[in-house]
Backbone:
């Protein structure tokens, strides 16, 4: 990246570290919680109530990743050519609905269908958020921004284990899916009012800064993902 382009990108307010990264990180944490909470629900009574064998439990875990493959590439293209914000927004709605429905299942086959659909709904998340980050952060900062977002894996692990254990102990495994599903709706509200696909769309950036950031490297870099 040349000096003039770096100077242009420097005009995008530093607020982006507080306005863009945290909502993206939180959305990623929620997606991971929805992905792994079945590991706590199974020994928490789900396996006994639904008559799930060890083989079926393994299939329920694995079928998620079959669905996960579907939107990996399309997700990145949607973020480049369309709106990653809208994509993740609708994904949060899907995560909420699927998670709540998982808390209402009455058979292991219903569980398999919902786990597959959850995989499809989560598949485009990471390509989309990484593309959005490329719109906001120049090469010199993008590695740090991506590293912060990728921290969602250990952070979600730290949060999910005790939270899931507490919910199952206080209520039951069904409420684990329902409560964590409803958390997606809370995050959706935060997402809708804080995140923008590109600096040019952000309301908290002045018009003069938007004109400068219109020439930012993020757009061109995002185009390389095609």
Residues:
């Amino acid at each position: 990246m040349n000096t003039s382009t770096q100077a242009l990108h420097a005009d995008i307010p530093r607020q982006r570290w507080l306005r863009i990264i945290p909502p993206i990180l939180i959305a990623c944490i929620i997606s991971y919680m929805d992905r792994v909470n079945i590991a706590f629900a199974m020994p928490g009574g789900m396996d006994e109530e639904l008559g799930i064998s060890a083989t079926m439990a393994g299939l329920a875990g694995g079928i998620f990743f079959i669905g996960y493959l579907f939107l990996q590439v399309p997700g990145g293209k949607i973020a480049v050519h369309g709106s990653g914000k809208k994509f993740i927004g609708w994904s949060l709605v899907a995560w909420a609905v699927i998670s709540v429905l998982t808390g209402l299942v009455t058979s292991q086959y219903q569980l398999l269908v919902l786990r597959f659909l959850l995989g499809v709904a989560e598949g485009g998340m990471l390509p989309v958020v990484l593309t959005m980050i490329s719109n906001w952060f120049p090469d010199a900062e993008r590695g740090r921004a991506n590293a912060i977002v990728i921290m969602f894996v250990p952070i979600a692990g730290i949060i999910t284990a005790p939270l899931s254990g507490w919910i199952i102990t206080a209520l039951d495994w069904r409420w684990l899916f329902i409560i964590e599903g409803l958390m997606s709706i809370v995050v959706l509200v935060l997402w809708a009012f804080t995140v923008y696909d590109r600096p040019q769309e952000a309301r908290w950036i002045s018009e003069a800064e938007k004109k400068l950031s219109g020439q930012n490297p993020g757009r061109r870099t995002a185009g390389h993902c095609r």
